[in-house]
Amino acid sequence: MMKCLLTVFVVGILAGPVSAQSVADIVTDDFFNGIIDQSDPSCVGRNFYTRSAFLEAANSYSQFGTADDTRREVAAFFAHVTRETGHFCYIEEIGGPTYPNSQYCDPTNTQYPCNPDKSYYGRGPIQLSWNYNYGPAGQNIGFDGLNSPETVANDPVISFKTALWFWVNNVEPVLSQGFGATIRAINGGECDGGNTAAVQARVGYYTDYCNQFGVDPGTNLSC
């Protein structure tokens, strides 16, 4: 009996904790393709979003996957990405340019003034929106977010970098509060009955991905 326990103990030490898996180990080709394969073959995003672009972008954000169990954080990130892009179908917000507030400009934000000829509607995996996000994201990543916001829809690596930039700055700080807090951080308008179906969809993707990764989704899943 003692020998068996010792063997299990030694194997556990050699194997290490499951949560020590790298992001690349978790986001396999099968996982990534399992999302994108659910979109329509005609979707423009199918030829834009790739696992290699995501991993290249993730290399610039080493803190991604460190705020919680890596598997749970990756599941949360891709749950939102799946919802925001329709399984990697959309690069730009549906009807973004035609919405009444299509420019998504906050004129009171003088630190990141809008270019009157540009619009800051949703683009990329997390659908980055508003001048006050495009400006600092561009500064951090290295592109002109205020004068060339369309870069987010034209360069897949930069596109994923904007999603990761938003995530580590706005979502990681609330991860410990549960998945529901991440919904509020990304699209709070859906919470408190704003769009129950959308919230349920995000939670569904999240729990599905947690199951695929073999990790408990935790508590406080809704908002």
From TrEMBL:
DNA-binding in keyword set: no
Pfam families (alphabetical): Glyco_hydro_19
Signal sequence, start to end: 1-20
Superkingdom of origin: Eukaryota
Membrane-traversing stretches: none
Limits of the Glycoside hydrolase family 19 catalytic domain: 43-65, 158-168
Keywords: Disulfide bond, Signal
InterPro entries assigned: Glyco_hydro_19, Glyco_hydro_19_cat, Lysozyme-like_dom_sf
UniProt-recorded name of the protein: Glycoside hydrolase family 19 catalytic domain-containing protein
Organism, as annotated: Hibiscus sabdariffa
